[in-house]
Write a structure and sequence with these properties.
The complex is a heterodimer of chains A (132) and B (181).
Chain A (H helix, E strand, L loop, with lengths): L1 H23 L4 H18 L6 H17 L10 H17 L10 H25 L1
Helix pairs in contact in A: 1-2, 1-3, 1-4, 2-3, 3-4, 3-5, 4-5
Chain B lengths: L1 H26 L4 H19 L13 H21 L1 H13 L1 H4 L8 H11 L10 H17 L10 H21 L1
The chains are: A mainly alpha (132), B mainly alpha (181).
């Protein structure tokens, strides 16, 4: 339960913080995603954290994966709530990803792209319902 | 030609997403909660796919630089991850790449950060999946070609670079499987 909650919260923080640094602090998508992920990875690698060893090893991967969502341009998605929702869905996908693709580079990015599209699809559906 | 390239790369990205989600469905057939969530994800994705905008940039020969950038990012990250760990390696490569356009003010460096970062995702691949630098270089080059082909689609979508990296790795794994069996 702690792992599930930790992964989903990390997903939400990863996506929203990257978007914030990229757009509001004007650092661009690559520097925001890579910089924040590097910071989180270094913290969890060198400092003792008040979380289990399993969660401590997982958080940097979840954060970098969720940060890919935050690389989105403001023209595509700019709602922080939807960004957080995408981060949460990314956490779900991370927890249930197939073992078949374990170790595949880019797997986190694919999950991030899917999570972002779920948010965009949800938004489109909501707007269609509102029009009616 | 632009239209066909965009359609082909859209098809590749769609198939990669289907493979990723399909593999989860195959493994979690006994978990109704997961399957219900995946059904919701599937419906939302279909709606999102219908609203994807396309651009009409030309595919210039200069874009071929991207293949080199992606391959370079992949090999560098793969090597660095043996020393520092995967996420730290990707972070270092990504941060360093993001400063390149400020240091070298040339047109051909402008697209380097995102391409090198895409390569860094390829370099995250475990040695158990792609053993050795040759395969990583091949996966990086394949991802680079996909990146050039997908220039007019998914622009500004988070996760595009990762999906392309996944495509490069997936193609090379399929190639290895085909050659060995």
């Amino acid at each position: 339960m702690a792992l599930t909650l930790g992964v989903i919260i990390t997903g939400i923080i990863g996506s929203t913080s990257t978007f914030f640094v990229s757009h509001h602090l004007r650092q661009g998508p690559v520097r925001s995603s890579a910089g924040l992920s590097l910071l989180v990875a270094l913290l969890f690698h060198y400092l003792p954290m008040p979380v289990s060893q399993e969660l401590s090893a997982t958080i940097p991967y979840v954060f970098i994966g969720a940060s890919f969502i935050g690389m989105v341009s403001a023209e595509v998605l700019s709602h922080f709530i939807l960004m957080g929702l995408a981060g949460g869905i990314f956490g779900f996908l991370y927890l249930h990803a197939s073992h078949f693709f374990t170790g595949f580079g880019g797997g986190l990015g694919t999950a991030a792209c899917i999570a972002l599209m779920v948010s965009l699809g949800g938004l489109a559906l909501w707007e269609r319902i509102k029009k009616r | 030609m632009k239209k066909h390239t965009a359609r082909a790369s859209m098809a590749v990205i769609f198939l990669l997403q289907v493979a990723f989600l399909g593999a989860i469905v195959m493994e979690k057939t006994n978990l109704p909660v997961v399957l219900s969530m995946l059904a919701f994800i599937g419906v939302s994705i279909v709606i999102a796919w219908r609203n994807i905008t396309r651009h009409t940039h030309d595919h210039l020969w200069q874009d071929i630089w991207l293949v080199g950038y992606v391959a370079f990012g992949a090999v560098l990250t793969y090597w660095l991850s043996t020393i520092t760990g995967t996420v730290i390696a990707v972070g270092v490569v990504g941060v360093a790449a993001s400063f390149l356009p400020s240091l070298i003010k040339k047109a051909w460096v402008r697209s380097a950060p995102s391409a090198i970062y895409c390569g860094a995702f390829v370099g995250m691949t475990s040695p158990a999946v792609l053993p050795g630098y040759t395969f990583i270089l091949l996966a990086g080059a394949a991802a680079g070609l996909l990146l050039v082909a997908s220039k007019n689609i998914f622009n500004g979508y988070g996760g595009k670079l990762g999906t392309i990296a996944f495509g490069g790795v997936f193609l090379v794994v399929l190639l290895i499987e085909w050659l060995w069996h």
